[in-house]
Design a protein that fits this description.
Layout: E1 3-8, H1 15-25, E2 30-36, H2 51-59, E3 66-70, H3 76-82, E4 86-89, H4 100-109, E5 112-115, H5 123-131
Parallel strand pairs: 1-2, 1-4, 2-3, 4-5
Helix pairs in contact: 3-4
Length: about 130
């Protein structure tokens, strides 16, 4: 069975994450979501949820088959571990250079990099709106 891999922080799960994962799932196969371990997240006061909580929220989504906590600042170890057919990133990465280690890992494993068309949402913006009472 071919593997589809999505990687990110997935902190403060929101509709943009769900739509991104559903779109990735439509590529067919086993959907693995790799999350960046908290120790590698460089945003101030983040993540809001710890590794186990973020993994649990994602694993409860029907479209997700497996969640992996990646103890690295990049998704490269997850790419090398799962050898996905597709490495799926959000459209906010389109036109940008992907992390060099992830690009090399995709080339090494033969993973095709795919960008979803899902509208970009921001966890930081969700947090800001909630804290401002909007």
């Amino acid at each position: 069975m071919r593997v589809i891999l999505c990687h990110g922080c997935f902190d403060v799960l929101h509709i943009g994450h769900v739509q991104h994962l559903l779109e990735a799932r439509r590529l067919g196969g086993k959907l693995v979501v790799s999350i960046t371990a908290a120790e590698f997240i460089k945003k101030k006061n983040r993540p809001i949820f710890n590794d186990a909580e973020r993994a649990r929220m994602l694993s409860e989504l029907r479209c997700v088959d497996e969640v992996y906590v990646c103890h690295d600042a990049t998704g490269a170890p997850a790419i090398l571990k799962y050898k996905p057919a597709f490495y799926v990133k959000g459209r906010d990465y389109l036109g940008l250079s992907l992390n060099a280690l992830e690009t090399v890992a995709c080339a090494k494993t033969g993973a095709q990099i795919v960008f979803t068309k899902t509208e970009k949402y921001s966890s930081t913006e969700v947090i800001r709106r909630v804290s401002c009472g909007l």
